[in-house]
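Open question from group meeting: does this chain pack into something compact, or does most of it stay loose? Before anyone orders reagents, we agreed to write out a predicted structure and look at it together. Recording both the input and the output here so the notebook holds the full record.
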Amino acid sequence: MAAVLNTFVNSFTNRLESPVRQHLKNVYGCLSLSTVSAAMGAYMHLYTEFLQANLLTTLGTFGLLFALISTPDNGKNKKLRLSYLLGFAFLSGLGLGPLFQLIMAVNPSIIITSLIGTTVVFVSFSISSLLAERGRWLYLGGTLISLLNVMVLFSFINLFLRWSFFYQAHLYVGLFLMCGFVIYDTQLIIEKYHMGNKDFILHSLDLFIDFIGIFRHLLIILTQKELAKDQRKRKD
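Structure tokens returned:
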């Protein structure tokens, strides 16, 4: 077991230079802080009356996202930009509060199961991307963005058609896309670093959006399965 672990660690050392590994540590550190901030936001909605998800918090989410993207890294504003990132993550978690409330009424364990599943999927795809040859998966970018545009178009059409097939296809294809974006964004971060872009805060934003996307899709899919199971039990 120790030999396998040592080989696994050495594979990262051989493929990634020391500065790149340090940059990735900063990226995943920010990602960890963001997920904690999002969890605090969800907790705030569920268990306190201090702040609830509404239109203003949604506008605040987009406002902080715009502030982060539009504020370039000059080496002196890292704390400000990190506060933008954590604020965005907090309001994103707050926005998941209503969905959590619905799921807790069905089966609260779905949230834990989805979180574990998201972590396993995210870590697995991230490791596979890091261990792959440099730039191997960057070609996925065009395909993923094209599929994302098609999904947005079909979502708009389904606002009028209300076809359940479109909705189910949107869920599963969306989950597939988020997994693809984990691979793509991870390798893109490394390429950006090699091109001189060392903005680890903005890089962690991409991975945080991927993580939340996978988590949200798993929540809905598992909840649907639980509801379908309950319906079958009632019929029996």
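Observations to bring back to the group:
The radius of gyration is 19 Å.
The mean pLDDT is 87.
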